């Protein structure tokens, strides 16, 4: 076993003050050079203009690719709503009877059944 000596408070205070006094201090020439570099950078700095705030719509449009993309997205959305609301009879024929018009809407199955997943062959 090692013999450990318990330090008194006065001894601890002396150790801490010695450690505090031992911190290195920068030289006055170093501080002068750092200060001169900082003043040179401040003189060369460009005055920053306050950032312009843009609206949410403008930011969204720029994120999706600009106004032409937004116009195409809006057109496709409106066409989808129109086709979904007023299904033309010719679309039902072109879709091969997969769209149900009228009272057959309760028979539409949107998920695959387990029978179609477990089919043989």
What Rg do the Cα atoms give? 39 Å
Give the topology string: H per helix, E per strand.
Answer: HHHHHH
Helical content (DSSP H or I, runs of 4+): 55-70%
The major β-sheet equals: none
Mean pLDDT: 76
Q: Kindly report how far apart the N and C termini lie.
A: 79 Å
Strand fraction band?
Answer: under 5%
Q: Care to count the β-strands? A: 0
- Silhouette: elongated
The poorly predicted ranges are none
Q: Could you say which structural class the secondary elements and strand pairing correspond to?
A: mainly alpha
Work out the helix count: 6
Architecture blueprint of SSEs:
Layout: H1 9-21, H2 28-44, H3 56-64, H4 67-85, H5 89-94, H6 114-117
List keywords for this structure.
mainly alpha
Summarize the structure.
By secondary structure, the protein is mainly α. The protein has helices at 9-21, 28-44, 56-64, 67-85, 89-94, 114-117.
Can you tell me about this structure?
By secondary structure, the chain is an all-alpha fold. The chain has a domain at 57-117. It contains 6 helices and no strands. The protein is elongated, with a radius of gyration of 39 Å. The mean pLDDT is 76.
């Amino acid at each position: 076993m090692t013999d450990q000596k318990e330090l008194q408070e006065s001894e601890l205070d002396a150790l801490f003050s010695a450690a505090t006094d031992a911190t290195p201090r920068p030289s006055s020439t170093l501080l002068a050079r750092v200060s001169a570099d900082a003043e040179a950078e401040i003189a060369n700095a460009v005055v920053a203009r306050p950032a312009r705030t843009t609206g949410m719509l403008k930011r969204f449009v720029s994120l999706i690719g600009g106004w032409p993309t937004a116009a195409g997205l809006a057109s496709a959305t409106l066409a989808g709503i129109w086709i979904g609301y007023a299904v033309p009879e010719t679309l039902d024929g072109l879709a091969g009877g997969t769209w149900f018009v009228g009272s057959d809407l309760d028979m539409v199955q949107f998920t695959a059944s387990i029978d179609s997943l477990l089919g043989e062959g």
